[in-house]
Amino acid sequence: MTSFSGGAALEAKLAEIAERLGGGATLRVGFLEGATYPDGTPVPLVTAANEFGDPGMNRPPRPFFRRMIAAKSPDWGSDLSKVAMASGYDPKVFLPLMGEHIKAQLQESIRELIDPALAQSTIDRKGFDKPLIETGHMLNSVDYDVKDGV
């Protein structure tokens, strides 16, 4: 690990890190545009209906995404810092690693959600009582990408 002391050393180290980071980049995690079910239905449309509910279809909200963000996001800064440092502050390395990390957290949130419970008619149709999972397509559609900065 690199060590440094004093104002000039700190400024030089911060300048070096800024140079490695370049113009910045954006990490997006979730259900990205272009993700569809086999019938062409956009995955983000279905996930929004699950997250916020769909009164027209008698579906209550199942806030798996918001719960994950509330529970996990307080640690993302520290997590990102550790991954960035371990990668030598190379955003081409640490942003995809962070994307995989948050993707796994979102998939875990989908797997763990149990409330509100499904209606008995839905359980009878599916054959099991797990909300949000029917074919696994939504779960497997969680993804991330990294967009280069300007």
Biggest beta sheet summary:
2 strands, antiparallel
Apparent shape: elongated
What percentage of residues falls in helices of 4 or more residues? 40-55%
Mean pLDDT equals: 90
Rounded to an integer, what's the Rg over CA atoms? Answer: 20 Å
N to C succession of SSEs: HEHHHHHHE
| Number of structural units classed as domains | 1
What is the number of helices? 7
Low-confidence stretches: none
Strand order of the largest sheet: 1-2
Our estimate of the beta-strand percent is 5-15%
Distance between the termini: 31 Å
Number of E-state strands: 2
Q: Which structural class should the secondary elements be placed in? A: mainly alpha
Show the helix and strand layout.
Elements lengths: L5 H16 L3 E6 L12 H10 L11 H9 L3 H11 L4 H22 L7 H7 L10 H4 L2 E6 L2
Antiparallel strand pairs: 1-2
Helix pairs in contact: 3-5, 4-5
Characterization of this structure:
The protein has 150 residues and is mainly alpha-helical. It has one domain. The protein has helices at residues 6-21, 43-52, 64-72, 76-86, 91-112, 120-126, 137-140; strands at residues 25-30, 143-148. The mean pLDDT is 90.
